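Protocol step 4 of 6: structure prediction from sequence.
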Amino acid sequence: MVFVIFWQNFRKLNFSAFDTSKLDEYAKKAKEQWGDTPAYKEYAKKSKNWTKEYESGLMADFTKLFEEFGTMKGMDPASEEVQAQVKKVQDFITEHMYTCTDDILYGLGTGYVGGGELTQNIEKMGGEGTSEFIFQAIKIYCGK
C-alpha cells in the first residue's frame, strides 16, 4: 500500500532525478487500490489545489532530503544525525502529503530498496547505496 501511495505523491511532477513516464500509471493504480484509505484521502485533500510551481518546489525540497542522505552514507545509520534526517523525511511527508506513521514510513523504506524505478531514482539522487542506507536508517528509527 505505502509504496503505491508514495508513487501517487509524484504523480504530476517533473524533476530530473525521476523518470516520470510511468507516474500516471502509478497514480491510477494508487487511486484504484488505496483511494478509500485515510492516507490517500488526506493526500488528495492536501494536494487538491497545488499549482505546478508549488509541486515543483515541494518535490525539489523532498529531493534534497534524499540527496542529503547520500552525503551521510559513510555514517552509522543509527547516529543522531542520520536519525534526525529520517525524522525530517517523515515530518515532510506528514506536513505536505499525508500522516506518515512509523508503519507507513517503514513501508516506504521497503519500497526504497524494492528494486525497480523507485530504487533507481533514489540512487540517482543520492548515489549508489543510498536506498539501502535510508532503509537501514528507517528500520532503526521505526524500531524494526
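Step 5 (inspection) to follow. Residues 1-8+56-144 form a domain with the Globin-like fold (CATH 1.10.490).
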